[in-house]
């Protein structure tokens, strides 16, 4: 079977010049080549809001006047002006050319923008509208999208000042086929910021005064943008006055003037200050606030140990808790004064070097102890409520909101202190006599037994009450436990006298000073520590301490009152170690002495060597 020959395309010959076919092809070829291009045209006339333009075609075209205007400005166009327009179609249904000025500008702009995008160059644009997620930017005819995150380095709440103003932008992405352009103003600012940062750091030095903007606020200070680099403004350097939180004096976005306090070139850490630009209020503070002067101030802070009072902005003094009240001793300062309260204080001490001022609050009121001694001198009889009972006496409330103490020995002439205290309870009202007032130490001594004469009642004394006690201070006695109380042991001496051993005197070790270790009828050895009338006070603790001293002295140690068994052993070990070398030396000398003795025996008394044996003696003969 013969194969079929391939089909051959037969091309028709070109039309003859000047023929209808040639003219028709020329006309359609021109149409295909001009449509979609930018042409230059001449303005024929401006009618109302339309512009009639001749671009050299069979018919003119009309373009809206607003397409020739710049955003925010009216169009300035007149007959005879030459303009560039985009030819969309050769003619419409009315036979007019379809022209567009906007598309002409867009085509021109796209060409320039593509060049800038490839060269990563900046472009100038104008923000003219707001859309979802960002803003629209006019890039000389081409519309671009500016995301909200790309407007500035920091979030911008109000963009109104930026709209309508030509600004540089960086093209991040563009797609001509889709007509999509994304730009960034932030990229331009960051690049400029990096350049400014390098220049700023290179010229930065301590003491330099700069302008900045508060970028962020924390609990300990604020970060200030100095134009490419951030510095820390610590809360203590914002102002001379006390500022608890930086937000009290600063706000984000606030423009501030600061001074460079410290600058570390290696870490590029910058410490800033604002108060350093103001005069130091502590200069001349000694003359301004003399000791003893009274003035008014505002409480700014309250602590467990006192309250701080602001005398003027930047100057604060401390009222210690001990200087707040004459009578309220163990009370928190917050129960006496409150924050922001205005108070009168007295200057007690000024230390300008340490920037400290000691103030007193109670000194501005009358001293109740002075008032008391003036109103109630010695031997005055009073009545008061028992505020507290301790192991050594009664505290009685007195006029002026102060307390006085009745010592256990001043309660009753005939009873021991422990027995007398047991008859009273908190809240009882008692009559007392003023025995002594110490204004400096703020102490008032009271007495109850002094209300009933000047001595014990003889009818209530034992038969031997008039006898002189048979013991004296320092004696070590064997006593018998007669009764056990919460405060100690009541004991009976060998001669029948009564004595008492306080609880803290029952043993040297605190853990052993317990009354439950003893029983009634038990015999003890104790040392007499005090003899007052018929009352004898004894101490087991003192006897044990004396025994330790004697033991330490026996070993050549210290006899201090604080010596313990460890001191005794230490002294013994010391003596033993001192004796060891002498004994060792004596042992070493024994062989030497024995050898020397033998040698001397051989030589004889006259120095001649004696025969070592009988044989040697015969040979000599």
Would you kindly provide a written description of the structure presented here, covering whatever features stand out?
- The structure is a single chain.
- With 621 residues, the chain is an alpha+beta fold.
- The protein contains nine helices and 30 strands.
- It has helices at 20-34, 101-119, 186-203, 285-288, 368-375, 417-421, 540-554, 565-603, 614-620, and strands spanning 38-47, 50-54, 61-64, 82-89, 97-100, 123-131, 134-139, 142-147, 166-175, 180-184, 209-217, 221-225, 230-234, 255-264, 269-273, 294-303, 306-312, 315-320, 342-351, 356-360, 381-390, 393-398, 402-407, 429-438, 443-447, 476-485, 488-492, 498-502, 523-532, 535-539.
- The strands form six sheets. Strands 1-2-3-5-4 form a five-stranded mixed barrel. It has a five-stranded antiparallel beta sheet with strand order 8-7-6-9-10.
- β16 (294-303) and β17 (306-312) form a beta hairpin.
- The longest helix is centred in the C-terminal third of the chain and has 39 residues, at 565-603.
- It is rod-shaped and about 155 Å long.
- Residues 1-12, 24-31, 559-563 and 593-621 have low confidence and may be disordered.
